[in-house]
Design a protein that fits this description.
Elements lengths: L2 H18 L8 H15 L4 H10 L3 H9 L10 H15 L5 E6 L5 H12 L6 E7 L2 H9 L1 E3 H6 L1 H6 L10 E3 L3 E4 L1 H4 L2 E5 L11 E6 L8 H14 E9 L7 H4 L2 E5 L4 E4 L2
Helix pairs in contact: 1-3
Length: about 270
């Protein structure tokens, strides 16, 4: 990447932020550049400046670019042994609480939030749980709210569910048509889906579990530090923080946590 293109990308990201409030300025530059080049190729553009012109002057184009720059990779009971660890090592520590508040930060299309709701149902805790699932991308939030998942994908998730310690027939949690699986309302209704930008927004509640998995890897060190501070401030005393397999606890905050399950990157906030 030339120095001129680097300047253009800076201007693009600043333009996106100033015009629409989406803040990608501290995302990992190498990953962003690949996705910017992908959209340029699709639009048959030769410079990043031309992409900025479309962002600022073409109505609706920002939604396309935000989808490119956002990573929307998820599945039901993703990393099943992580969910098994939640079931065995976290749930026993929160089951006696009068209310359980959980935050899925960077929830994408919602599959992991639905997985958590199913897990809580099987542990007899869903009735007193509130799950907040947030993402910066409004389009994926709207999709998540529908509770609709490709039927072929849903059938493939059965193995994940069983490995995660599932106790029922996985198919009992959704109804089907010819194309989609639709999560049952009793599961959907315990989840609040909302837009929230980890790069710019503040804490909005105190949570007993926060899941921010496979999100920090797309941020640079400055933004990682900000998000770690936000997550710490949002956790209740003795609350649990779950990170992704490729993510590490920030050094300055590590002393404020105990390792609940180091293999699954689950940490407990010191009281």
């Amino acid at each position: 990447m030339t120095n001129l293109e680097n300047i253009e990308i800076d201007l693009l990201l600043e333009g996106i932020y100033q015009a629409y409030g989406y803040d990608f300025r501290n995302y990992l530059r190498s990953s962003l550049t690949r996705r910017i080049h992908y959209r340029m190729q699709k639009e048959e553009l030769t410079t990043v400046t031309q992409l900025l012109e479309k962002v600022l002057h073409e109505p609706g184009f920002i939604a396309t670019l935000v989808n490119d720059l956002s990573i929307c990779v998820t599945e039901m009971f993703r990393d099943p042994f992580f969910f098994k660890a939640i079931r065995e090592k976290v749930i026993p520590n929160i089951c006696d609480l009068p209310e359980i508040r959980i935050w899925h930060a960077g929830c994408s299309t919602g599959e992991e939030a639905y997985s958590m709701a199913i897990l809580l149902h099987e542990e007899g805790l869903l009735h007193k749980a509130k799950i907040y699932a947030t993402d910066m991308n409004e389009q994926v939030i709207d999709y998540a709210k529908s509770g609709s998942i490709s039927l072929k994908r849903m059938q493939a998730f059965t193995k994940n569910y069983l490995q995660a310690g599932g106790k029922e027939e996985f198919s009992s949690y959704y109804k089907t048509d010819q194309k989609y699986a639709i999560i049952h309302p009793e599961i959907i209704n315990r989840i609040v889906f909302a837009q929230h930008n980890l790069a710019t927004d503040s804490t909005f509640n105190e949570f007993h579990i926060i899941l921010c998995r496979n999100v920090l890897i797309y941020f640079n060190a400055t933004l990682q530090q900000r998000v770690h501070q936000l997550l710490y401030a949002s956790l209740a005393p003795a609350g649990f923080l779950a990170l992704g397999q490729m993510e590490a606890m920030n050094g300055s905050l590590k002393v404020k946590y105990e390792e609940a399950d180091p293999c699954q990157k689950i940490f407990c906030k010191r009281s």
